[in-house]
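Entry type: protein chain
Record version: 2
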Amino acid sequence: MGNTEKFLYLDNAATTKVDPEVFDAMKPYFCELFANPSSIYTFAGKAGEAVETARAQIAGLIHANSREIYFTGGGSESDNWVLKSVAEQYAGKGKHIITTKIEHHAILHSAEYLEKHGYEVTYLDVDKDGKISLEDLEKTIRPDTILISIMSANNEIGTIEPLKEIGAIARKHGVLFHTDAVQAFGHIPIDVNEMNIDFLSASGHKINGPKGIGILYARKGVKLSSFIHGGAQERKKRAGTHNVPGIVGMGKAAELAAARMQDDMVKVSAVRDYAIDRIEKEIPYCKINGHRTDRLPNNINVCFRYVEGESLLIMLDSKGICGSSGSACTSGSLDPSHVLLAIGLPHEIAHGSLRLTLSSETTKEDMDYVVDQVKEIVARLRSMSPLYEDFLKEQKQN
């Protein structure tokens, strides 16, 4: 946690803390109501009821029917399930899938896996803000296209994609539409019917719920393969004993998210914009990444020229600030983010990125402290960079 008294967690896109109300809802299902919901005695019925209540709470958040919700181990599993299931079930129609260059690796690596098994994948470009072109999407659809998989909002730069328009294009051409909504679920409104979404992936731990639990929404009538074979759980589609406390926790978190969403969107985006404004005004040669307005309420992603992102993170950590340089899933990688490269940033600038993702508890005072520290650290790192010195000399000459 660094060597300071102050502690600010600003990596809520990586994971969130469990809400006390969620924790309280989960507690009884560990030691008291611990039965396996697949058993037939009355005691097990209470666990079974809790699972179905959670299913309804989650369905309510995206305006689905609870019978369209399947529990999984998390967002990555849900993403894998959709791509591999559609590939298997609809191979008779074709073997072409459309996705984007900025998807989470759970989609990109599943798509690569399918390419090795005879499928063709088109990876759509995005513009400088990270948005797809609806025109490009429509042009890319072929008679053998079976799935369009486009994320609801990007986990690194926060850009929200035009889901309703994508859904309309997919429906018009008779192509299934999946959205990886892991970052958007519970943070911005999603209506699977209005947006013509056939499949949706989401995760509990991004909305103040527990880790190790996620969902796949699959519209009634679409074909879905069994992903894990064994017992008859999840309507024989995903075997394995239900993670009852996790399911209860995700259900409660979804219920709370539905109740708080509108207020949180207003409150969090105001703090976000305040911080972005200060960064842009007070730190030279920086670039805010992602769309300015069609953006997740809690996301700030900025590149500082002539600064190494990793050094910046380590120095922020020593000041009690937890941030990231992009996706938590690739933090062990030395390559710059595939998302930043896809929006057209050169390697040397993409390397100097910082992602700060706020919570509803983050205040303007917190962000004042953060911006002050970032300002100081960026100046210190640049003072040690011969490249920055040369750059300043050039600027003066011009």
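Comment: The chain is about 40% helix and 15% strand.
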